[in-house]
Design brief:
The complex is a heterodimer of chains A (about 700) and B (about 650). Chain A has helices at about 5, 45-55, 60-90, 105-115, 120-165, 170-175, 180-220, 220-230, 230-270, 270-275, 280-330, 340-380, 440-450, 470-475, 490-495, 505-515, 520-525, 540-555, 570-585, 595-600, 620-625, 630-635, 645, 650-665; strands at about 400-410, 415-425, 430-435, 460, 465, 480, 490, 530, 560-565, 590-595, 605-610, 615-620. A 6-stranded mixed sheet of chain A has the order 6-9-10-3-11-12, with helices on both faces. A 4-stranded antiparallel sheet of chain A has the order 2-1-4-5, with helices on one face. Chain A has a two-stranded antiparallel sheet with strand order 7-8. Chain A is elongated and about 120 Å long. Among the domains of chain A are: about 45-220, ABC transporter transmembrane region fold (Up-down Bundle); about 400-665, 3-Layer(aba) Sandwich (Rossmann fold). Chain A is about 60% helix and about 10% strand. Chain B has about 650 residues and is an alpha/beta fold. Chain B has 2 domains: about 35-350, Up-down Bundle (ABC transporter transmembrane region fold), CATH 1.20.1560; about 370-605, 3-Layer(aba) Sandwich (Rossmann fold). Chain B is built from 22 helices and 10 strands. Chain B has a 6-stranded mixed sheet with strand order 6-7-8-3-9-10, with helices on both faces. In chain B, helix 5 packs antiparallel against helix 10 (about 305-350), helix 6 (about 190-200) runs antiparallel to helix 9 and helix 14 crosses helix 16. The chains are: A alpha/beta (about 700), B alpha/beta (about 650).
Chain lengths: ~700, ~650
């Protein structure tokens, strides 16, 4: 949906209609772009214009705000005019005013009011003063609120678009680019752009009166204006130079602060190791070095700041002195009035502020340039999983056969990881994949879920090329439990329903029961509503695993893909997990990367992967008999195990046990037939009626 | 899987991982005046610089005095210009103005610089002391203060203190002085007008202060909403693979939209409050100029004051109003700094749990005999003993294994040996001497503990392995790495030992991390090595390799290891099985097998014999009497 917003301006896009075979799927990308510090970039007008696109829906609000700020600034100039021209020149020390002087007819208005009301002239002046104040205040409230609301909404949209684009970046992207790298783009960088918009409008607000004042001054006395204004170029040059120097120093300060913080954070996170290694004193002295560097930079910054402050103050007072001297002479010669001299000195003070503010604005501007570039870099990064042009409409329920046909695959820029892999799985069959680390096991399951792109006609589900299936559709049919499955913060129920937000509570509980998670969940203080910490820190590893199983089961995928956790947990928990795994795979086409002998035994066939090639495929017993790679692996990994014949459990006994358990967990429903060999049938175990139906057409 | 000890910090890892916002959601007490007393704690830090401080303050006050005198020049000039009886000599006033400015700058610049350097130096001192102090804290400290919390104190609170030192109280002094100086000049010109003009000012200060305080909840809400957006995004991206595998991107985008919309709402509310606050204050401060306009104007018309006095009043008023309206901000900053100070000193004043008490002479050469005698230990604030009456002996040069369920107290035993928890005296002995008699440094040198949680620093593999002593040479590193079974993994890394790992480097797999931390422990070749379940993430084959490596590297040295696997434990000379803090079985592998107890059952289950479901169930029952709720219990006892 929001892709429509972000895509049109994407720069180097692949042509959409090119054939999948000549795709850039194995293209090497330069991910280091994401690590670069983008702080030295010049003004990028194109980028600013691009930003306007997000402001478009709120253009009315933002334009209103801009008009208001112009009005507010113009009106605020009137207040000192009332003070000087009306009160001093007309009431207190009456003089004839030079006709050329533009005072926006404030004096005329005053005269008119005086004739109309016959109040004391000072009261009228006060009334005028207050009126201007009230009007400007009201307008300035409206201005600030419209500005904030427009800018916030603009950036909310930008933020959502950025998030959307990140959400659709494929696994290959996240393999290379750390989460932290893109994270700050959503948070800090978008905030920086907000500061840019608001400070831009605020500084326009400062500069509008500056221009007004300048015009007024010039029309009223050219020479005096020149005398007063001569400091302005000086102040401007000083400000720009100062900001230029400070930009570098500030960057160094920021760097040193972040190094300090990173060092401390790492030290705290690894404090146990620090203390066990006796590194405390060493780390303190390392930290001291960073701390000293930070202090050195801060000192440098202060030297410049103090000089700049002093320079500006002296400039202002130098100008005041000059105007007083020169203007005083003009008053004596009656070229200007006393009120004008006063007004002039007032204005002088008003002019120096926007110039100093200009320096600050440049600061914001350059910082947001870098931020904007980082944001657009992420938005424009066009890396996505190829979507078929006319995706195949999948039937309501897949049979669940999977076929790999001469699959070759390599990750961009590395050696070929899978070579000519061919095998097929019948619906409902369970296949165990074994192999050493790096043999390509995980790649196989990643490809099946299309986490990476690969050529057409290599993987088929129900004889349909997976590249012809929409990724979303495909992924909903395949339940994947990764080894690093992620438990999210939120309730247990949320986590189970993650696979499909339409999963009902009953359905979730049903799934939890089936994978043995129900009992531990019930025992938690708030049951299914228990809030989990991020990454499930408040659950044990075994509990997390069961939860991940329940999550997959709740959505009832036709095909299950599972990367078994390698870490050893205590034996009791392991048995519970084994049983859950069994229940999970019943009647479901399953591909399991197995690390435990028992898991392998549960499977119908075993595929041995060695250096990216399928070396052996057959039942556990067959492969053992063959005395090939599997036999060796088996000997190495499970040397204490008994021989093959002893390993197989009595199927009848197993069946009985499982039926018993089913009744325990689902007292209201008839236990289905389990069995290890339910090939061919859908074998799906229905949950409570109607609760688990998938929304169609997603 | 976490048991006691350091795990408390892990919950906070996530916060502050990315630059800017540190410790997003630490709930802070609202700052108030009652904190002000804490500022006295800063005195020792400031006292160092007290003479600089006195001179600086004198200089700054002098500067303010000169600033307050400046409008007088303009007053005289305007009065002279308006008076037809005087010949105006405005150049005199102009020169006066210039000279005063130059003098005030000469006084001000060095003082300001010194004062700001001082605030930086104080920050530096505080930070250094904070870091140093934290290094020596024990586990219960880190359980109480998570990483995020500590970072937030070190960053945000120290910054706040810095603001207060650098501006806060100088502002307050300048405020008082400026008010008095301006009032003095105003009074000298016209007491009547002065009185009339200052009436609204106390209200300005009061409203300013109240509103500055009132905005606090709005800002906090805004910050919290931002923290929500941040943590949502972070979690989402960390779990992006899971989300994509479940095809839930659209759903997540919707949730993100909600979250960021809620943030901009909070943001808008805070801005609205601020906008109105500014208007109220402006309205109040506009009253005084109007009074000058009307009442001052009348006084000029009545010839009670001159036109120059009239304009000078406006200038002084601007000066006063500026001070008064910023006093609210200064005060609230001060109060916040006081609260920050209290949070910093909460850390700085907590004593290390483990202290050296090494008065007794202890041998410098350690043979490596470790003995636990009737050790009973209870974590503070828990109701049950984690360890009760533990008697374990590790003879010099031998290997001993500890087995047992999660939460049975195995890790605690190891922690007691290196005093990561402080056990009472006379229960743990190293070569016959109480471990409390050794200095902590020596103790941890001769006993290396490789903790369960495999933590790698953002540094190269080599730097991680040589963490205890960065000067070790490559040969040593390679020896340790190959003993730890890391050699193979190193070959896959592009830069080998010099590959950056950890948070800012490449991510190693769980098994690789574990082997790297094992190498870190092995390289020290200390007399006693304690391994806390260091093979859990490596497969059985690799484990065999590592155990071979261990045998070679640890020949003649003592090793105490925790494992879940019988296949690991069987290599030990002696095995202890722990349950609920006590030892339930002890013996050699063969002895324990013969006993047909927990160990023997475990062996059966793990070797997959007699796999019928009923048998399995039975074994399960025996291993975990309350099997299904076992997990829950384990969690409860560790969190």
């Amino acid at each position: 949906m929001s892709e429509a917003i972000s895509s049109p301006q994407v720069t180097p896009r692949e042509s959409p209609n090119k054939t999948p075979s000549d795709n850039a799927r194995t293209e090497m990308r330069n991910y280091s772009a994401f690590d670069q510090e983008l702080t030295h970039r010049a003004l990028n007008v194109r980028m600013l214009l691009r930003l306007l696109k997000w402001a478009k829906p709120y253009k009315l609000t933002l334009i209103t705000s801009s008009i208001l700020i112009t009005l507010v600034s113009a009106l605020s100039v009137l207040m000192p005019i009332v003070q000087s021209r009306v009160v001093i020149d007309t009431v207190l020390v009456p003089v004839e005013s030079p006709a050329s002087f533009q005072d926006f007819r404030v004096v005329d208005a005053f005269e008119w009011l005086r004739d109309l009301t016959e109040w004391h002239p000072l009261l009228i002046a006060a009334a005028m003063y207050l009126t201007i104040f009230v009007v400007t205040s009201l307008m300035s409230i409206a201005q600030q609120l419209t500005l904030t609301s427009g800018a916030l909404k603009t950036l909310r949209d930008l933020r959502v678009d950025l998030f959307t684009s990140l959400e659709h970046k494929p696994a290959s992207f996240y393999d290379h680019v750390g989460v932290g790298r893109v994270m700050t783009r959503i948070t800090n960088d978008v905030e920086n752009l907000f500061n840019l918009i608001t400070s831009f409008v605020q500084h326009t607000g400062d500069f509008v009166p500056f221009i007004f004042v300048l015009i007024i001054c010039f029309t009223f006395d050219f020479e005096l204006t020149l005398v007063g204004m001569m400091i302005i170029p000086l102040a401007a040059v000083a400000t720009i130079t100062f900001r230029w120097i400070m930009r570098e120093i500030f960057r160094l300060i920021r760097d040193s602060v972040s190094q300090l913080n990173q060092y401390m954070q790492e030290d705290l996170m690894g404090i146990e190791v620090v203390q066990l290694s006796g590194r405390e004193d060493y780390n303190i002295s390392e930290y001291r070095k960073l701390n000293q560097e930070n202090r050195r930079q801060e000192f440098r910054a202060i030297n410049w700041e103090v000089i700049y402050e002093a320079f500006n103050t002296s400039l202002t007072s130098f100008a005041s002195a000059a105007v007083l001297w020169f203007g005083g002479g003009k008053v004596v010669q009656e070229e200007i009035s006393l009120g004008m001299l006063y007004l002039f000195m007032e204005f002088l003070n008003r002019m120096i502020a926007p110039i100093m503010g200009l320096g600050y604005f440049f600061n914001v501007l350059f910082r947001s340039m870098a931020s904007g570039e980082r944001i657009f870099q992420a938005l424009d990064w066009d890396e996505r999983i190829h979507e078929p042009e006319n995706p195949v409409q999948l039937p309501e329920r897949l049979r669940g056969s999977v076929e790999f046909r001469n699959l070759n695959f390599s990750y961009p820029g590395s050696e070929q990881i899978l070579k000519n892999v061919s095998f097929s799985i019948e619906p409902g069959e369970k296949l165990a994949i074994v192999g050493a680390t790096g043999s390509g096991k995980s790649t196989i399951i990643r490809l099946l879920a299309r986490s990476y792109d690969f050529d057409d006609n290599m993987i088929f589900i129900d004889d349909i090329d997976v590249n012809q299936i929409g990724t979303n559709d495909l992924r909903q049919r395949i339940g994947v439990v990764l080894q690093d499955f992620h438990i999210f913060s939120g309730t247990i129920l949320d986590n189970i329903a993650l696979s499909n937000p339409n999963v009902s509570r009953e359905r979730a509980i049903w799934a939890a029961r089936l994978v043995n998670a129900h009992r531990f969940i019930e025992a938690l203080p708030n049951g299914y509503e228990t809030e989990l910490a991020e990454r499930g820190h408040n659950l044990s590893q075994g509990q997390q695993q069961l939860l991940a199983f329940a999550r997959v089961l709740a959505d009832d995928p036709e095909i299950l893909v599972l990367d078994e956790a390698t870490s050893s947990i205590d034996t009791g928990t392991e048995l519970v997990i084994q049983e859950a795994l069994h229940n999970l795979t019943i009647g479901r086409t399953s591909i399991i990367i197995a690390h435990r002998l028992q898991t392998i035994q549960e499977c119908d066939r075993v595929l041995v992967l060695h250096q990216g090639e399928v070396r052996e495929l057959g039942t556990h017993e067959e492969l053992l008999d063959r005395k090939g790679i599997y036999y060796t692996l088996h000997q190495l990994q499970f040397q204490d195990s008994a021989t093959a014949s002893e390993l197989t459990a009595d199927p009848d006994e197993l069946e009985a046990e499982r039926r018993k358990r089913w009744v325990e967990m689902n007292p209201d429903s008839e236990p289905p037939t389990f069995g290890n060999d339910s090939m061919g049938g859908t074998g799906f175990i229905g949950g409570p009626a109607g609760s688990g139906t998938r929304p169609t057409g997603v | 899987m976490r048991s006691g000890g350091f795990s408390g910090g892990s919950g906070g890892y996530s916060s502050g991982r990315w630059g800017g916002t540190v410790g997003g959601r630490i709930n802070r007490e609202r700052s108030s005046f009652k904190h002000l007393g804490y500022l006295t704690k800063l005195f020792p830090y400031i006292a160092k610089y007290k003479w600089i401080l006195v001179i600086c303050i004198a200089a700054i006050l002098c500067h303010r005095g000169l600033m307050a005198y400046m409008p007088q020049f303009m007053k005289v000039a305007l009065n002279d210009l308006a008076d037809p009886n005087v010949v105006p000599e405005t150049y005199k006033q102009a020169i006066g103005l210039l000279v005063t400015t130059i003098v005030s700058i000469i006084v001000y610049v060095p003082a300001r610089r010194a004062l700001r350097r001082l605030s930086i130096s104080i920050t530096y001192d505080l930070r250094q002391r904070f870091f140093s102090h934290v290094q020596f804290q024990g586990p219960s400290f880190f359980n109480k203060f998570g990483t995020g919390d500590l970072m937030s104190r070190a960053v945000n609170d120290i910054n706040m203190v810095r603001m207060a030192v650098s501006f806060g109280w100088v502002n307050l002094m300048v405020f008082v002085f400026t008010v008095f100086a301006s009032l003095a000049f105003m009074l000298s010109m016209s007491p009547k007008l002065t009185l009339a003009v200052i009436i609204p000012l106390p209200f300005v200060g009061l409203v300013g202060f109240l509103m500055a305080r009132g905005i606090y909840p709005y800002y906090r809400e805004r910050q919290e909403a931002l923290a929500d957006v941040t943590s949502f995004t972070q979690e989402n991206l960390n779990g992006i693979r899971t989300i994509q595998a479940m095809a839930q991107e659209e759903h997540e985008i919707e949730r993100f939209k909600e979250s960021s919309t809620s943030y901009i709402k909070k943001f808008y509310r805070a801005t609205r409050y601020q906008t109105f606050m500014n208007v109220y204050i402006n309205a109040l401060t506009t009253i005084s100029p109007v009074i000058i306009l009307v009442y001052g104007g009348l006084l000029v018309l009545n010839n009670e004051i001159k036109i120059g006095d009239f304009t000078a009043f406006s200038v002084y008023l601007t000066m006063l109003v500026g001070q008064v309206s910023s006093i609210g901000f200064s005060l609230s900053m001060f109060v916040a700094a006081a609260a920050g100070t209290s949070r910093i000193f909460e850390i700085l004043e907590s004593d290390p749990e483990v202290t050296d008490d090494a008065n007794t002479a202890v041998p410098q050469t350690i043979r490596g005999r470790l003995e636990f005698k009737d050790l009973t230990y209870r974590y503070p604030e828990t109701g049950i003993d984690t360890l009760s009456n533990i008697n374990i002996t590790l003879e010099a040069g031998k290997t001993v294994a500890l087995l047992g369920r999660i939460g049975s107290g195995k890790s605690t035993v190891l922690k007691a040996a290196v005093r990561m928890i402080d056990t009472p005296r006379n229960h743990v002995f190293l070569d016959g001497h109480d471990i409390c008699d050794y200095s902590v440094k020596q103790l941890r040198e001769v006993i290396s503990l490789v903790p369960q949680h495999a933590f790698l620093f953002s540094a190269t593999v080599k730097e991680n392995i040589t963490y205890d002593d960065p000067k070790r040479d490559e040969e040593e590193v390679m020896r340790a790495a190959s003993s730890a079974g890391l050699e193979e993994a190193l070959k896959d890394l592009a830069q080998g030992l010099d590959t950056m790992v950890g948070e800012r480097g490449i991510t190693l797999s769980g098994g690789q991390k574990q082997r790297a931390t094992l190498a870190r422990g092995l390289i020290r070749e200390s007399e006693i090595l304690l391994l806390d379940d260091c093979f859990s993430s490596v497969d059985t084959r690799t484990e065999e390799l590592i155990i071979d490596g261990l045998h070679q590297m640890r020949a003649g040295k003592s090793t105490l290891l925790i494992s879940h696997r019988v296949s690991t434990a069987r290599h030990a000379d002696y095995i202890y099985v722990l349950d609920a803090g006590g030892i339930i079985e002890a013996g050699t592998h063969d002895e324990l097998l013969a006993r047909d107890g927990y160990y023997a059952n475990l062996e059966k289950v793990q070797s997959n014999q007699e796999q019928s479901a009923q048998e399995k169930e039975k074994l399960l029952e025996q291993l975990n009497p309350e099997s299904p709720s076992n997990d829950t219990q384990a969690t409860a006892s560790t969190t």
